[in-house]
Specification:
It comes from Chlorella sorokiniana (Freshwater green alga). This protein is of the alpha/beta class. The protein has helices at 10-13, 31-43, 60-63, 78-97, 101-104, 136-142, 161-175, 204-208, 269-282, 335-355; strands at residues 23-27, 48-53, 106-115, 132-133, 150-159, 178-181, 195-198, 214-224, 231-235, 243-247, 252-255, 259-260, 290-301, 306-313, 322-329. It is 30% helix and 27% strand. Bound molecules: flavin-adenine dinucleotide (FAD).
Length: 357
């Protein structure tokens, strides 16, 4: 994947937009930033939309397995998670039905989530198709020894980060959006734009001084196991570290770990062994799978997702006293699960900010 970058530094600072339309700067090129940029460009075709990011490729979003499932979202209200999640799932189901499916990496899959104790239905049970508590006979197909006493079955979509991020980049370029590789040290640098959209994930801690942001470290393995086609998960209860198996196009993702507050992205031997052994306990055939890659990523944790418009006061010396900023960050372990729905709200907030000028 190659970035189509804006040609001049003016696009980063502002003033690089078309003469007819407003100039919108989206900071961050993960799934939240790229989806926001695309939906803003779709809502405001005359606007100049520039994505500015330190990393245009290989973000956390590019490396994620891409399962649709709300996870590690703190106290984000369930009604918001369901609304954003439903919009996003509908978008992925639409992609799965369309000729875009292979390019976007959208795959429909069955999900089997096994538990060792009774667990109530999740709030999002109403969002996914075919949700039901599994019967014992269904559980035994996956767990012949009967080590799990309960389970959920549902249908969901896997939108593999690597493929979907490439598709988003193509869509944005085709719509006329631009991308520019650059770190933003202070919001004042963007004063020339009409609206800034903050999609910096964990970067919001430094850029906007949000000390409630924290990393939730996650270690996953990628193995070659083409016989595995369904999502399987075994856990002790919601919020507990779980064992998960997510098929992607060329590899199967085995996870995982949950390390709140841990910034270390170096893989640990003990975790690697634990992840593999736990996955083999759920699906013993994985012992034949070749390990092809591993990755430690940092989920952008926060007490809840932040999606709101703020008039940010700029420091002295700026060309104007304040700048409207739409914040869209803190999606924890569910950025791909919520991105399309959140981006729809972000596009509306940008329109509100422009209407106030
Ligand atoms: C192991 C693991 C597995 C996961 N699996 C799934 C899954 O199956 N399904 C799912 O929905 N989610 C999953 N997630 C979570 C998902 O990856 C995140 O929620 C998502 O990537 C967050 O997207 P984002 O765009 O907010 O942040 P990121 O992808 O981290 O992107 C942030 C962007 O902001 C830029 N940036 C930050 N600060 C600055 C600055 N000062 N100047 C310029 N640019 C800046 C960065 O360079 C980057 O481009 C997983 C996460 C991990 C770690």
């Amino acid at each position: 994947m190659h970035a189509r970058a804006a040609s001049s530094a003016a696009a980063a600072g502002g003033g690089g937009g078309s003469s007819e339309g407003p100039s919108i700067c989206v900071v961050g090129a993960g799934v939240i930033g790229m989806t926001s940029a695309l939906r803003i460009k779709q809502a405001l075709p005359a606007a100049s939309v520039t994505v500015v990011a330190e990393q245009l490729e290989d973000t956390t979003s590019h490396c994620a397995g891409g399962l649709w499932k709300p996870y590690t979202l703190g106290d984000t209200p369930p009604e918001l998670v369901n609304r954003w999640g439903r919009d996003t799932l509908q978008h992925y189901l639409g992609l799965y039905q369309s000729p875009e499916a292979p390019a976007a990496g959208a795959v429909l899959t069955s999900a089997y989530q096994l538990f060792r104790q009774p667990v109530p239905n999740p709030e999002w049970a109403q969002v996914v198709p075919h949700f039901r508590q599994m019967s014992e006979a269904e559980r035994r197909v996956l767990d012949p020894e009967g080590s799990h006493s309960h389970g959920w079955f549902y249908t969901t979509v896997i939108t593999e980060g690597r493929l979907y991020m490439g598709w988003l980049a193509q869509q944005l370029a085709a719509a006329g959006g631009q991308r520019l590789a650059r770190r933003v040290a202070a919001v004042e640098e963007l004063a020339g734009h009409d609206v800034v959209v903050n999609c910096t994930g964990l970067g919001a801690k430094a850029l906007f001084g949000d000390d409630s942001c924290y990393p939730v470290r996650g270690h996953v393995l990628r193995v070659r196991a083409p016989w595995v086609r369904h999502y399987t998960n075994s856990e002790n209860g919601p919020g507990e570290e779980s064992t998960y198996i997510i098929p992607n196009s060329e590899t199967v993702v085995l996870g995982g770990t949950l390390g709140p507050g841990d910034w270390d992205t170096t893989p640990r031997e003990a975790d690697r062994r634990r992840i593999f052994e736990r996955a083999c306990a759920v699906l013993p055939s994985l012992r034949s799978a070749e390990l092809v890659a591993e990755w430690v990523g940092l989920r952008p944790g926060r007490p809840s997702v932040r999606l709101e418009l703020e008039e940010v006061q700029l420091k002295g010396g700026s060309s104007k006293p304040s700048l409207p900023v739409v914040h869209n960050y803190g999606h924890g372990g569910a950025g791909l699960t919520l991105a399309w729905g959140c981006a729809g709200d972000a596009a509306q907030l940008v329109q509100q900010a422009l209407a106030r000028r």
